[in-house]
Structures are given as structure tokens and as C-alpha cells.
Design goal:
four-stranded antiparallel sheet, mainly beta, about 110 residues, seven-stranded mixed sheet
Length: about 110
């Protein structure tokens, strides 16, 4: 059974930081391309960041470039999303994905 479990969400102030984690089980993690998506209230789900199976290729949405960093640990089977310089518009539910599988999401709220 494939499971993706996100953690690390919460409340942050504008300009603050959070690190999300997604622990994966039930699939060959070291061969899986991983992505983080987010869905803000009333909006569709958007791709935030992508990382290749070996971790040597990453891509980011223009809205988070220079602020967010995706990384992975292929020993611990975890993918991370380091989020710095957070803005209120980053408020959303964040999901990790190893297509076609999804986690349950973790809420990130950026507010003063």
C-alpha cells in the first residue's frame, strides 16, 4: 500500500519560514519523481516544485522561485519543501505527489 504523509505545516508570519516533509512508503522511492502542489481556497491545484528521482533536477513555479527549495533523502524516503520569505499568498493546502499517488495535504497559513 502506497502512503504519502505530509507534515510540517502550520501558521507562519509573513517573511517567515516553514519546512514541509513528505514521508513515502510502499513504492520504490529512489525511482520516483516527486512533486509538491498546493491549493488555495477557491483556486485550482497548482504545481509548486518538482524533483527528479536522483535529486539532480528541480523545477519551480515562478511564484516561488528563489524562496522555496525542494530536496529529497533517498535513504529516509522523504521529500522536503523548505519555504522561506513566506507571503500571505502562499496560504494553501500543500500536497506531495508521486504520480498517480497523493498525500492527504498539510495546511500552511501565512498571516500576521
Amino acid at each position: 500500500q502506497v502512503q504519502l504523509v505530509e507534515s510540517g505545516g502550520g501558521l507562519a508570519q509573513p517573511g517567515g519560514s516553514l519546512r514541509l516533509s513528505c514521508t513515502v512508503s510502499g513504492l520504490r522511492f529512489s525511482s520516483a519523481r516527486m512533486s509538491w502542489y498546493r491549493q488555495a481556497p477557491g483556486k485550482g491545484r497548482e504545481l509548486v516544485a518538482f524533483i527528479s528521482s536522483a535529486g539532480d533536477n528541480t523545477n519551480y513555479a515562478d511564484s516561488v522561485k528563489g524562496r522555496f527549495t525542494i530536496s529529497r533523502d533517498n535513504v529516509k524516503n522523504i521529500v522536503y519543501l523548505q519555504m522561506n520569505s513566506l507571503k500571505p499568498e502562499d496560504t494553501a493546502i500543500y500536497y506531495c505527489s508521486a504520480p498517480p499517488f497523493w498525500g492527504q495535504g498539510t495546511q500552511v497559513t501565512v498571516s500576521s
